[in-house]
């Protein structure tokens, strides 16, 4: 049976970008002008949306998305919704405003947070599982407000009296909610409150296990839920070129940087997803290929999404097809640096995935990139 084309998103590097992990060489600072270049490029190239990350080291995703929405046409913006860091009523007003400004191009990424050290800096001191209980109340109130209800709510974490939203969003009843959480508490919140469950790029066996667990929970609640995956991409015309690019990306990382990053993941973070990412390689350079074409080199120093699909367009397309067979319908991709890699993925991988390209260009025009015709007469080879 033929599969529907996969939904393909890209990433706006609001914490900075570069050509070498762990090095300031050819580093690009997090500047709005650069974000705009990436957003406008992926809008033209046919990506359906972009993820904007969140955290102390990132530019604010809501403000950045508001700016980018005014200079793009079709691109959707997956923006962080942070229970605990803001209030549900204020988040509801932000949601309606940005959805209206973007003419219905807003998506929400529910981020409960997996780093207690960073959360403490935001004034949030709640244990891991309790954060999900708080998020459940938050999203219940948020959803009712955005849907147009007048809300009275008296819970463990929130009390609302006569809450309402006077300006409705474009998308009804609410913009879609995306969510990633590998723990038991995270999976329960995901199936109870959200529309699409995200996983980081684990080997297919791990993703299969996680999807099965989430589906069981959703079925018990009479709910359907979609699935997506977050991956980096290193796609080249030959396999040797792809693996050489992967090696080059981490060629300036020192052993000390790896040790410090891995210690930080263990000491500061209580995220089950991060634990699973780090366990794929254990901080060792000789254990980075964790499944065919799935490489964990990014996770040596980067928290969160730490794996990349590496290979030719055909190889990477085959790996994505395997994830689709498990139920994945959305990919959120990235690559270093993000502007150039957005073009590489669109030009090399999209055709192998059956994704469309811009047909406005007349390929029969004669120029240095295509042998075509002028005035309807065929060019003849020089004698």
From TrEMBL:
Source superkingdom: Bacteria
One biological process term in Gene Ontology: alkanesulfonate catabolic process
One example GO MF annotation: alkanesulfonate monooxygenase activity
InterPro entries per the UniProt record, alphabetical: Alkanesulphonate_mOase_FMN-dep, Luciferase-like_dom, Luciferase-like_sf, SsuD_RutA_monooxygenase
Keyword Iron: no
Catalytic activity field: an alkanesulfonate + FMNH2 + O2 = an aldehyde + FMN + sulfite + H2O + 2 H(+)
EC code(s) of this entry: 1.14.14.5
Location of the Luciferase-like domain: 7-329
Keywords of this entry: Flavoprotein, FMN, Monooxygenase, Oxidoreductase
Family statement: Belongs to the SsuD family.
Function noted in UniProt: Catalyzes the desulfonation of aliphatic sulfonates.
Name this protein carries in UniProt: Alkanesulfonate monooxygenase
Organism encoding this protein: Xanthobacter tagetidis
């Amino acid at each position: 049976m033929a599969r529907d084309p996969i939904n393909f998103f890209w990433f706006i590097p609001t914490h900075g970008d570069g050509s070498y992990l762990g090095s300031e060489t050819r580093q690009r600072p997090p500047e709005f002008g650069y974000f705009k270049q990436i957003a406008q490029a992926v809008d033209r190239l046919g990506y359906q949306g972009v993820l904007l990350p969140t955290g102390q080291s990132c530019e604010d995703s809501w403000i950045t998305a508001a700016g980018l929405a005014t200079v793009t046409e079709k691109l959707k913006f997956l923006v962080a919704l942070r229970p605990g860091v803001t209030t549900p009523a204020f988040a509801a007003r932000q949601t309606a405003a940005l959805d209206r400004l973007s003419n219905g191009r807003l998506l929400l990424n529910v981020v409960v947070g997996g780093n207690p050290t960073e959360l403490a800096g935001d004034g949030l001191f709640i244990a891991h599982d309790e954060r999900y209980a708080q998020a459940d109340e938050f999203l219940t109130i948020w959803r009712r407000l955005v849907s147009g209800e007048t809300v009275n709510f008296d819970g463990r974490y929130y009390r609302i009296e006569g809450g309402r939203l006077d300006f409705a969003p474009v998308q009804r009843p609410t913009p879609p909610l995306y969510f990633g959480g590998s723990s038991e508490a995270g999976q329960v919140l995901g199936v109870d409150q959200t529309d699409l469950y995200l996983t980081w790029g684990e080997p297919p066996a791990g993703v299969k296990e996680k999807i099965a667990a989430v589906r069981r929970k959703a079925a018990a609640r009479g709910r359907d839920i979609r699935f997506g995956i977050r991956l980096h991409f290193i796609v080249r015309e030959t396999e040797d070129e792809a693996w050489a690019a992967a090696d080059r990306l981490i060629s300036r990382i020192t052993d000390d940087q790896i040790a410090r990053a891995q210690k930080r993941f263990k000491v500061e973070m209580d995220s089950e997803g991060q634990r699973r990412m780090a366990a794929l390689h254990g901080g060792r350079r000789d254990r980075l290929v964790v499944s065919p074409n799935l490489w964990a080199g990014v996770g040596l120093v980067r928290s969160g999404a730490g794996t990349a699909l590496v290979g030719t367009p055909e190889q990477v397309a085959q790996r994505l097809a395997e994830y689709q067979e498990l139920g994945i319908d959305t990919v959120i991709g990235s690559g270093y640096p993000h502007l150039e890699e957005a073009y590489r993925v669109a030009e090399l991988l999209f055709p192998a995935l059956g994704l469309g390209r811009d047909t406005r260009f007349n390929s029969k025009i004669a120029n240095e990139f295509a042998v075509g015709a002028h005035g309807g007469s065929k060019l003849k080879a020089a004698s």
